[in-house]
Amino acid sequence: MSAPRPTRRTMLKAAGGLTVAAGLGAGTILATSAAANAAGDGFGLHITERNEDDPRMWYYRFRTDQIGWAPAVNVLLPSDYHSSGRTYPVVYLLHGGNQDFMAFDHLRIRDLTAGKPIIVVMPDGGKAGWYSNPVNSNAGPRNWESFHINQLIPWVDANFRTYGEFAGRAVAGFSMGGFGALKYTAKYYGHFASVSSHSGPASVRRDAGLVVHWANVSSAAVELAGGTIYGAPLWDEKRVTADNPMENLERYRGKRIFLVAGTSPSPDPFDYANETQVLAGHREFRAALDKANIPFTAHEEPGGHLVRPNRLVEDLDGMIAHLKKA
After folding, report:
1. Cα separation, 64 vs 68, whole angstroms
2. Where are the domains of the chain?
3. Which of 113, 123, 192, 297 could serve as a FRET partner for 317 with CA atoms 20 to 30 Å apart?
4. DSSP string of 2-33?
5. Which residues are catalytic?
6. What CATH code would you report for 8-322?
7. Chain centroid, CA 26 distance in Å
8. pLDDT of 74-120, one tens digit each?
């Protein structure tokens, strides 16, 4: 699974075993509100900070009524974006539990995408937001799904040279973000032509709904101050069904599907529990896709709950080959 355990230990540890850097780093430059406003708000987003000094990695922070604090996003541009005048496909790359919008930058995403003709958008999704609008929150609004789908995607398409259409858009993620990618692809059928889950749950009802329980427990402890994603003690069953990849197989037909899971997690109980559940869910999902004659690409790799850079590069190349060309 993908969200953090409600302990002090995992508040200091990323879901993949990677330490999440605090803050934005010494090089971050914050714009004044006046400068940010001049750059253009819209779609319910008000820019409060920005940094466009780097030729490729542009940073924004927003105020939005969908989130009770100011979430951020990194937008990684192709190397030739400023000189080519071309329009590019775009991938939304979603981080795992107890991570933030900087997670893939820590994994050298700039190097991994050098020379590749695709825009990479990496938004905040909450430490245990599960890419969802929760049933209830005691911490103010945490509507990550509405923020991403209704606000961020239209804002990106309006402010960057993207193909703002199904054929030009992909979504991928790690762990909790892999679940979010699978969920968004099925739930918003015409949004994404390619979906990738790197160690993200694909079957949320298996083992008596272990993933649903984990989403509720982790979000209550870390994200929602006792609120839950799916409701407790009774679930909102319609929400669970809408979010469960296994119950929405036909909504993946005609799309590129890329799955990665680990086969040998470490003895660490958190790593073991996460990837054991992920692997079993991927196998169940793949068997169902096979039965339905829906093509996919899948890898089972040695190791546990982590992002494998070689598979991420393979995935990016597959997206570029599948999506509308720059």
Report:
1. 8
2. 8-322
3. 123
4. -SPPSSHHHHTS-TTS-PPPPSS-TT--PPPH
5. 175, 271, 305
6. 3.40.50.1820
7. 25
8. 999 999 999 999 999 999 999 999 999 999 999 999 999 999 999 99
